[in-house]
Amino acid sequence: MKIDYDALAALAAVLRHGSFDGAASELGLTQPAVSLRIKSLEDKVGTVLIQRARPCTATEAGARLLRHAEEVGLLEKALAEDLGQAAGGPARPLRLAVNADSLATWILPALAETEGFLFELTVDDQDHSADWLKRGEVAAAITARAAPIPGCDCIALGALPYAATCAPAFAARWFPDGVTAEALSRAPCLTFNRKDRLQAQWAEAATGHRLALPTHFLPTPQGFITAAKLGIGWGMNPVALVKEDLAAGRLVELRPGQRLSTPLYWQVSRQAAPALAPLTRALKRQAALFLDRDQSGKPGQIGAN
To answer: Which among 224, 238, 234 has a CA at the least distance from the CA of 173?
Structure first.
């Protein structure tokens, strides 16, 4: 099937903006012209590609063609770089899956030093972010999965260390006799969402028991820290985010020095890898500054630091 790439660009623009008007503004066309291109593409493939709603969303076939459009854009970018024509070229949309704690600590500086992309980040737990890549919904992902996804390169980045922290008054109230299974079963903890297993992993490793933890669900890394300082609960926080609060005594560790490390990997589609090479280098540089280098343990490894 021969694809009209002007129509494909219109499809990508509609889905990127969520509207035909937004796509028309980006492409310098009228809204009817964009509609005509989409209708022509739908007639060619024989199925509806866009759910006309607010916002517009892709059908399954539309999502597949969107991935194709993005892959073509990345291939064109890589070709331009090979020919020495990258400077001044259009920025290419790039969808990535990342975990919230990496986004809050070390990924943004890597994005800042990488030009030529319009980033669209999907935030998901590190144990699940690889699923977005497996489904073809992103070009690359930060994930805890060490095994390469078929068709992808996998690069070890390091391990993100976490500390179990809470406010001093919270520790005095709920853990007067130290961290025990009984105390952890009563003290409210903070959990990012229902995919977040860090608190449960730490509690099991610390006590040797699987525990039902009373929990507040709070899907924001910075809110996690604020909630801990306010005495709402205890939770696993990236050490990079709480080291100043720990030093100042605004937070304390439930067991000083006993931390959980989560190994992280950069998995990138081999087809997109050449175009993403500058981003890969930037991520590796930032990871070297923020992450522990030792990834010998399994995800969720507890150790003294």
So the answer is: 234
- Domain 91-158+262-304, CATH: 3.40.190.10
CB 263 within 8 A of CB 142: no
| Structure tokens belonging to residue 183 | 């105390």
Domain 5-81 fold: Arc Repressor Mutant, subunit A (1.10.10)
Tokens linked to 210: 């699987």
User: Is the pLDDT reported for residue 81 higher than 90?
Assistant: no
Domain 161-261 superfamily per CATH: Periplasmic binding protein-like II (3.40.190.10)
> 127: which DSSP letter?
T
pLDDT digits (tens, 9 = 90+) for 83-138: 766 555 677 889 999 999 999 999 999 999 998 898 999 999 888 898 998 888 89
CA-based R_g, the chain, Å: 23
- Burial of residue 64 (number of CB atoms within 10 Å: 0-12, 13-18, 19+): middle
Beta-sheet pairing, 152-166 with 235-238: antiparallel
Instruction: Say if residue 219 is preceded by a cis peptide, omega within 30 of 0.
Output: no
181-229, pLDDT tens digit by residue?
999 999 999 999 999 999 999 999 999 999 999 999 999 888 999 999 9
> How does pLDDT run across 7-51, given as a tens digit for each residue?
988 998 898 889 999 999 989 999 999 999 999 999 988 999 999
DSSP string, 8-75: HHHHHHHHHHTSHHHHHHHHT--HHHHHHHHHHHHHHHTS--EE-SSS-EE-HHHHHHHHHHHHHHHH
CATH 1.10.10.10 in the chain is located at: 5-81
- Tracing tokens 């996690």 back to the chain, one arrives at 224
